[in-house]
UniProtKB/TrEMBL annotation:
Pfam families xrefs: ABC_tran
Record bears the keyword Transmembrane: no
Record's protein name: Ectoine/hydroxyectoine ABC transporter ATP-binding protein EhuA
Compartments, record wording: Cell membrane
Entry-linked Gene3D superfamilies: P-loop containing nucleotide triphosphate hydrolases (3.40.50.300)
Amino acid sequence: MPPTENTSSPHIGASAQTGASPHIDTEASAPAIEFKDVEKRFGKTTVLENLNFTVAPGERVTLIGPSGSGKTTILRLVMTLEELTGGYIFIDGRPLTFEDRDGKRVELPKKTTRAMTTRIGMVFQQFNLFPNMTVIENIIEAPIHVLGKSKDEAVADAKSLLERVGLSEKADEHPTRLSGGQQQRVAIARALAMSPEILLLDEVTSALDPELVGDVLAVLRDIAETTDITMLLVTHEMQFAREVSDRVMMFDGGLVLEEGPPDLIFNDPSHERTRSFLSSVL
């Protein structure tokens, strides 16, 4: 695979090295992510309809709501793992998969879309590590073949990331010899190895035994506190959402019922459906 130019600017280590606090870039000319009139249907089932919202650069937005409300679909659309039925998604003001051309909705070339997605990282419910590769081989694969990094540079970055997620000693292990929590931390390191501007997190603790959840959440808290990566996450870990989010959005039936700062949504939600949902999960 030929190298693709990496146009991302924030780096996972930037804020940690300078000691700067994470921030929302209110001076940016365009949102990091914008959904405009987004629709998604699976056959006759409409999952998302007329969805409009933005995520600012550096903002951490958590999507909550019952299973089947469209939250994971939103992440998969941004990662281009699902195709839009209608509407548009923009990354830093640029169309991701479709654009409006003289009033017509036109699909962009796959090459253009692939270049855009190098700026986006995603961590899934399941770890999706390559079982035939060691931990460090899993992490360096994409930086070498997609970003065009040298092996030495990719290995050095991977070792730094493994130290960050507390797995330096597991570099030469195969994923099958790791616990679920360790595999998920490797998956986080693998996503960060691409120096993404945007990190998508899809129920990253749902497949873990309860005693393994804490270590994974601690890594994600560290990322939220020490970097300026934009984060869009789906989680049922409400305390975690309260701690790391700038904004929480409540979804049900593919619609945004309400949104606001975590303290408002968790302490004084205005919608009865939000109140009943939170009472069932808190």
